[in-house]
Amino acid sequence: MCGIVGYVGSRNSVPILIEGLQRLEYRGYDSAGLALIQDGSLMVIKKAGKVVDLVDLIGDANLCSHLGIGHTRWATHGEPNDLNAHPHWDCNKEIAIIHNGIIENYATLKTKLEHDGHRILTATDTEILVHLIEEMYKRADDLFTAVRLALLEVEGAYGILVISKREPDKIVAARKGSPLVIGLGENENLVASDAAALVDHTRQVVYLEDGEVACLTASSFVTKTIHDQEIIKQVEEISFDLEQIEKGGYEHFMLKEIHEQPESIRNSLRGRLLVHDGTAKLGGLEPVLDTLYKAQRIIITACGTSWHAALVGKYMLEQLTGIPVEVDYASEFRYRNPVINPGDVVFVISQSGETADTLAALREAKSKGATAIGIVNVVGSTIARETDAGVYIHAGPEIGVASTKAFTSQITVLSLISLLLGRNRGLPQDQGCKLANDLQSLPEKVAKIFGEASHIQDIAEEFKHAQNFIYLGRGSNFPTALEGALKLKEISYIHAEGYPAAEMKHGPIALIDENMPVVFIVPKDAIYEKVLSNMQEVRARKGRIIAVANEDDREIDSLADHVIRVPRTYSYFGPVVNSIPLQLLAYYIAIARGCNVDQPRNLAKSVTVE
Ligand code: G6P
Predict the structure, then answer these.
(1) Do 174 and 281 belong together in one domain?
(2) Is residue 601 part of a domain?
(3) How many helices (H) and strands (E) are present in the chain, helices listed first?
(4) What is the pTM of this model?
């Protein structure tokens, strides 16, 4: 998730680009940069930090350019520093590119380009693309064709803008998987990753579709498919206001992020899942793979929602790899003088990569000689830098304080690690393939659940005045229950507890009466019947049951007051799917109670104090 904006026209592009980047900063904010064509030369100005740091760098320089592109980065490959900031350029500094997305086959392309004499200077996947375009430009008549030809060789996702000083009046834009919208003005045209950067200038827009490439000048635009077929695009009118656009038309960031999950899970899997081999490829773990394969024990440490993902990870890792796994709150781990043996590997999970307790736990583990692996969202964050190796979850910026898409992406990455280690430790290929197929189907299954939204909203309306909630699940759906309860308390301020369903009879059952809503996560898995018995126990005490159950489960209808249907998933990965309705239930209850879901009281997105 990066912000992209481009301008070509009669006005000075610089203030337009800067203002556009400021509007897009919510999409990523670890570095920013511009490429401009001024007096026939191509210049690039870029800086780690926020857009305001770029503005400081520009200072009083008298920049005046009628064509430029701007980028605000949310790093996926390579630390967020000045060098890795976009735009990137080719060997001769004639072409500049900005990119949002992930080029999956960048390592293969890099080897080939270096062999052909290209000098690659940064750790980004984007720079590879500009060198590939440079290569194609040698045989193509124009930039538009060169970009098109280059994209035929690229696997992955992109929204790109490319300019060249040899064709100083053109911006070439292309999209696959990462949005781009063209804004049409009078003697000017703009293009951006979302309409927020355009609305001050025009409301006439054209949305690029996947596989389309456009060439913009001040007075025209042409669109083709990457296979060279011309397409006539429909001009549309934006009717949203600015705030709605930033939230993608959703009322809150949290709701937007819930709905982004098919895409964020896909991004976590992108280029990593080898479906036919039934395994995963995780480049970030390569330096420690030998240690990991031989691990005697895995300890996972984290806080909050990330700790719940760690608990789900325990179930998957132990089942698929046979390695014993312990999960510890980072705040406890750091102070309990933990025993670390040779052969122990510590996984550290953090969305922000900055949580103080998790960072301290990481340092404690490393000081005792453990190999530490990070599972982090924010690239270049402290935890990402201090771990020995790691896997970024690539969920994109999470703005809502209550974590949603980071949770499902953390589990997705833990699934990939489990699959990789499992195959190395004897999991047969056919089983690996079955798991890989199941993982690949997760985005589609998650998307299907959004069809239940209005039903969940009705349930929320019925229970909005509840004072307490209990969430119950077994196996890896026990941590799902914990996460469901946490979401509800975080944003609606209703007291909620998660328990393993069978543990209820050892205490919480005393709380059950006709006023107690009980959410059961009850997929049709090996312990389904056992959970049904627990439901009977609640029903006998007049508790009100909301069940998250599989689409084809009819037995559940006679036991539950409300059933939220979810697609069937292989049980280890079930929490990814089953947590979606719990996020929506918490969201709709909080809204019905008039709470501020994006900024709940007393909480912070990143807790950098003890
Ligand atoms: C805070 C946030 C939680 C988050 C936890 C851990 O408490 O409010 O949503 O789960 O920190 O954050 P991390 O960035 O380390 O995953």
Answers:
(1) no
(2) no
(3) 20, 26
(4) 0.83
